UniProtKB/TrEMBL annotation:
Low complexity: bias regions: 86-99
SUPFAM superfamilies per UniProt: S-adenosyl-L-methionine-dependent methyltransferases (SSF53335)
Disordered: annotated span: 79-105
Gene3D superfamilies attached to this UniProt entry: Vaccinia Virus protein VP39
Species this protein is from: Sphaerulina musiva (strain SO2202) (Poplar stem canker fungus)
Name of the protein described by the UniProt record: Uncharacterized protein
Protein origin, superkingdom: Eukaryota
Pfam families (alphabetical): Methyltransf_23 (PF13489)
Length: 277
């Protein structure tokens, strides 16, 4: 619900923004291979969160008409387009010519907020959002409905397996109780290339390309990682922590040790896909 993601806004923007931005950048590149984003393009970022994809679109492309939508107003409030700098991409549109519309919306009912009869989008992005939904296919159909039927681009990404944050917490707690398992908050979640293939097939997309993309681990050290668990705010992390009924401080101490032992293995794995509608 919106309240849970409102509480996550600060934690999300501070800890995961860079990693999700890297995934967004690759997704944008794939989308532009099918249809370049120009000053005439109409671009929407669905489930924008704190704006990783929105900001990457602004930095990498000529887009001037951009919309960011999320169920959480607090997430959207964290999106601020920076002024142009000398290091900005030469492809980026002048800051003064851009418009960014921030609009809360439920992804399962996008067409109520964005009626296709009034406007469709040349490029519809969803970056690392579908895997937290109980009904992702409905969301894909809704995104398809607001995308330009004359060759609009649908660009989607998922968090792949394993989700190391939960896996490390489980391993840490198992040093104290070997029987402990983290309950799956999203038991039917999409996380594979096959899931995205199913999504694009369901909306009859063409020129589909799907790939797995690994980005750097978003936490500099075990102190930063453990702090994220201790402070809380992210619904999934809070759910995992609350499932542990033993001594929480002992589990957090174990988490730091497990993180250090496995640091060389860690990355944020994503699955990216683009298609033409």
């Amino acid at each position: 619900d919106s309240a849970g993601w409102d509480n996550a806004a600060g934690a999300w923007s501070s800890s995961l923004h860079r990693a999700t931005t890297l995934a967004a950048g690759r997704l944008i590149d794939l989308a532009e291979e099918l249809r370049p984003i120009t000053e005439a393009s109409r671009v929407i970022d669905v489930g924008a969160g704190t704006g990783a994809a929105t900001l990457a679109i602004a930095a990498k492309t000529c887009a001037t008409d951009m919309t960011a939508t999320d169920i959480s107003q607090s997430m959207l409030d964290n999106i601020h387009l920076p002024p142009p700098t000398t290091t900005s991409s030469h492809h980026a549109a002048p800051h003064s010519s851009r418009t960014l519309t921030r609009q809360t919306a439920d992804v399962h009912h996008l067409t109520k907020t964005f009626p296709p009869s009034k406007k469709t989008y040349t490029h519809t992005f969803s970056n690392l959002m579908l895997h937290v939904l109980s009904d992702p296919l409905t969301a894909v159909h809704q995104m398809h409905a607001i995308t330009d039927p004359a060759g609009g681009i649908l660009a989607l990404s998922l968090t792949g397996k394993p989700i190391w944050m939960y896996h490390l917490w489980q391993l840490a707690c198992q040093t104290l109780d070997p029987t402990f398992l983290v309950p799956d908050l999203f038991p039917t979640r999409w996380c594979t290339p096959q899931d995205l293939s199913h999504a694009f097939h369901a909306v009859h997309a063409t020129d589909v390309h799907i790939e797995t993309f690994d980005t750097e681990w978003p936490f500099a050290n075990s102190t930063d990682f453990v702090h994220w668990f201790r402070v809380g705010g992210h619904p999934g992390i809070d759910f995992a922590v609350q499932a542990w009924k033993g001594d929480r401080e002992m589990a957090l101490e174990a988490l730091g040790k497990v993180h250090d032992e496995m640091r060389h293995l860690l990355c944020l794995r994503t699955v990216l896909g683009v298609g033409r509608v």
